[in-house]
């Protein structure tokens, strides 16, 4: 008895957590009150709005790739559920780390806040990969007839995320603004259809 079960409930729960995490980001947005100029007051709070946009985009990309990952999985087991839960823990921390970073931009603790932000992203993408790595080592969890070459290519592509976030974390020790560059490159790459999937379909 392997205690395997369909992925439906895991996907529904994950979708709900990701949707709530994206929504909670808005609760961190400041609501300026001023008698001298609302637009100027809003402009002064630009770090909050920039952090919201970046984190919302990242969660959307995470949701899209999580959805795509489960195209290749037909069943889960207790270990897969646990790894996926660890991934979701760091998704829900996005609201906290985003607000923390936005509140400390240009202040003495800016680097500390940025390190916490990047470290959370490293762990989030690491556990996403752990979920995938575990699943592909269990043939009974995969959809029948899944192309093994495609699985290997996807594994390499998914590993780019924690690697680039780790690079961003290390750059942050030197420069907080420049640490955003690897993150932006990652957003652009993962917002596009997976190159390995396109390559597999063309064959």
From TrEMBL:
Lineage top rank: taxon: Bacteria
Bilayer-spanning residue ranges: 49-67, 79-102, 114-136, 157-190
Catalytic activity: K(+)(in) = K(+)(out)
Compartments reported by the entry: Membrane
GO cellular component, one term: membrane
InterPro entries listed in its UniProt record: TMEM175-like (IPR010617)
Main location: membrane
Bilayer topology: Multi-pass membrane protein
Listed Pfam families: TMEM175
Protein keywords: Ion channel, Ion transport, Membrane, Potassium, Potassium channel, Potassium transport, Transmembrane, Transmembrane helix, Transport
GO MF, any single term: potassium channel activity
Family to which this protein belongs: Belongs to the TMEM175 family.
Protein name: DUF1211 domain-containing protein
Organism: Spirosoma validum
């Amino acid at each position: 008895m392997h205690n395997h079960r369909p992925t439906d409930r895991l996907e529904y729960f994950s979708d709900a957590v990701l949707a709530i995490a994206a929504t909670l980001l808005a609760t961190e947005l400041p609501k300026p009150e001023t008698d001298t100029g609302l637009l100027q007051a809003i402009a002064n709070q630009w770090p909050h709005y920039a952090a919201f946009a970046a984190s919302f985009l990242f969660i959307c990309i995470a949701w899209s790739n999580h959805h795509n990952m489960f195209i290749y999985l037909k069943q889960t087991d207790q270990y897969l559920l646990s790894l996926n839960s660890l991934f979701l823990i760091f998704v829900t921390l996005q609201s906290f780390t985003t607000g923390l970073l936005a509140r400390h931009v240009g202040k003495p603790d800016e680097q500390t806040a940025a390190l916490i932000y990047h470290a959370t992203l490293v762990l989030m993408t690491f556990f996403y990969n752990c979920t995938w790595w575990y699943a592909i080592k269990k043939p009974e969890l995969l959809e029948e007839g899944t192309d093994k070459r495609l699985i290997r290519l996807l594994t390499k592509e998914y590993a780019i995320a924690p690697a680039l976030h780790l690079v961003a974390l290390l750059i942050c020790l030197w420069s907080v603004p420049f640490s955003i560059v690897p993150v932006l490159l990652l957003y652009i790459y993962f917002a596009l259809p997976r190159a390995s999937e396109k390559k597999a379909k063309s064959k």
